Amino acid sequence: MEKLTIGLCPYCGMGCRFYIKTLNGEPVEVEIYEGGVNEGKLCPKGLTALDFLRHNDRLTKPLKRTENGFEEISWEQAIKEIAEKILEIRDKYGPDALGFFSSARCSNEENYLLQKIARILGTNNVDHCARLCHASTVAGLAQTVGAAAQSGSYDDIPKAKVLLIWGYNPAETHPVLMRYILRAKDNGAKIIVVDPRKTKTAWFADMHLPLRLGTDIALANAMMHVIIKERLYDKKFVFSRTKGFEKLIKVVEEYTPEYAEKITGIPAHLIREAAVTFATAGRGIIMWAMGLTQHITGTGNVKALADLGLICGYVGKEGTGLFPMRGQNNVQGACDMGALPNVLPGYQKVTDDEKRKRVAEIWGVEELPSEPGLTIPEIINKAHEGEIKALYIMGENPVVSDPNTKHVIEALKELELLVVQDIFLTETAKYAHYILPAAAYAEKEGSFTASERRVQWNFKAIEPPEEAKPDWEILTMLGKALGLKFDYESVEDVTREIALVAPQYRGITPERLKRDVEGIQWPCPSEDHPGTKRLHVESFATPDGKANIIPVEFKPPAELPDEEYPFMLTTFRVVGQYHTVTMSGRSKALTKRWGEAYAEINPKDAQKLGIESGDKIRIVTRRGSYECKAKITKRIGEGVIGVPWHWGANVLTNDVLDPEAKIPELKVSACRVEKVM
Ligand code: SF4
């Protein structure tokens, strides 16, 4: 029998809808759903989103590591043994010897349950890969505007008169969003792209500012210097809706365009032109992603962009906004659900006695831990030092996604218990003591939250292979085995509990989500509330309702070129692959076109090194070496090497952390390049 089920793309945070066509319960093809935020359009990843579902590599049975390698084990036995070991470790070493990695590719309900397990066991050591992408956004926006989310909606983009796209390449990472950007351009908006590479997005820009790696704050401060000196800021907005402007004036005083030119490499006249273009447009949006956030100054970078938007009055109005663009399909939701070490669901601080008490009451427990837990890099470091003894990983692949791969592997090998719950035998799962086979997106139900705070229901189209189970079911089994009151009979039971716990989700019920398949944007305070398109319209989510302008000083990256490592290394993504290629790497269509690692080298550097396109090269940093083919291109500037990180380039990257958000400086390392003979 042929059937069409409404699907939700499992890749990026755009939130595109399509139909999954099945024949006798088996996936056949993706069909276009005329509507949704994607308006019937899909990128190469969305079009091939069924390819990995029935791949032979799928995990289908629970596995246990034995002397003879991995052996099959029943679900009952696996869950029993895992629960016993977790409790044994907690009782012997204390709850903070446990760590939990949640997942931006699992549903809200699944993230909610994993953090609930961690916290009831007595630890806040729960985190997920937002730590590696937008942790600095969460920290920076929380301090400035009080809400760690995109302030407007995609619909605001075509209404803007200027788009400042910073460290973000939507043409490859959110291709469907480019339609909104190009519509803005058609409507007369100016597009300014700030990126060290001449990305595909930069091709469409009116101005491209190829700054030196890690010099974002100097550039933003210089733009604000010009805007303040030329009195182009929005005086009414600044004085009525913000505080801290006087301090900003003092800090940006020394950042003249000429001074910033020396730091950033961008000619002073272009900095001036960009500042004036941005401030005088009347309606502007700032969009950013990993190019801005993955630095030791990531939180400062976000604050600087928030300051820039605020002084121009570009927040809370139509055609304006601060738009951190989310990478994974549920990274927004995983943050909302409190899969973070410092906040409970709904960004309620673990240190807030009243909020913690309220959540504990709903969960039927006496108390919850009040000290913020460890982040992903800290959990890895503590595992390395032997202090974290057990790690439960749901749908993450830190061996490939985290910086300094060698260090990560060494840490995983130290653990007394490593459980990996995933759909494929990932590079990380190979080090596990237990592997639990999970259902993929099309094989389960639940809610997911896209980049613009849009919560959508994910409908089940097919059955999971063999014994694989939805993550929420696995966690319910585990919760029960741990002795917790986990009496959920359906995923909808969890959705309803989320509405009780997370204030932003109060009016979001499974019934509404199933009825209104195009979703609801949080905050949604009651069941008759339509959802919220735009945040900060009348006041900011801060205690006094005013936004905090927080000036920041430029600080150089942790590693700079020297004699031994004369180049700067940066990483990027390609349109046809996704993250650690666990899913997209199993699509023949995608791997045929985007199947090989390479490194971009500027022609002048290539000439000096005697390298031609297609030559095999070795890139070496202080942490490791990596071989791939050279691609000689003017897309990258002199002195910089660019590598897509999908295929294991994190053996090279730096795990030094932003002290505020604990995000690693994945975007900048010093390296050398050798031709492999
Ligand atoms: Fe999927 Fe993102 Fe592509 Fe849309 S833009 S089809 S959500 S990968």
Automatic annotation (TrEMBL):
Q: Which Gene Ontology MF annotations are present?
A: 4 iron, 4 sulfur cluster binding; formate dehydrogenase (NAD+) activity; metal ion binding; molybdopterin cofactor binding; NADH dehydrogenase activity
Q: Does the keyword Transcription apply?
A: no
Cellular component GO terms, alphabetically? membrane
Q: In this protein, which residues make up the domain named 4Fe-4S Mo/W bis-MGD-type?
A: 2-57
Q: Which InterPro entries match?
A: Asp_de-COase-like_dom_sf (IPR009010), Formate_Dh-H_N (IPR041924), Formate_DH_asu (IPR006478), MoPterin_dinucl-bd_dom (IPR006657), Mopterin_OxRdtase (IPR006656), Mopterin_OxRdtase_4Fe-4S_dom (IPR006963), Prok_molybdopt-oxidoreductase (IPR050123)
Query: Keyword Cell membrane: yes or no?
Result: no
UniProt keyword annotations, A-Z: 4Fe-4S, Iron, Iron-sulfur, Metal-binding, Oxidoreductase
**Source organism superkingdom:** Archaea
List, alphabetically, the CDD domains matched.
Answer: MopB_CT_Fdh-Nap-like, MopB_Formate-Dh-H
Which Gene Ontology BP terms does the record give? formate metabolic process; respiratory electron transport chain
- The name this protein goes by in its record: Formate dehydrogenase subunit alpha
Q: What species is this protein from?
A: Palaeococcus pacificus DY20341
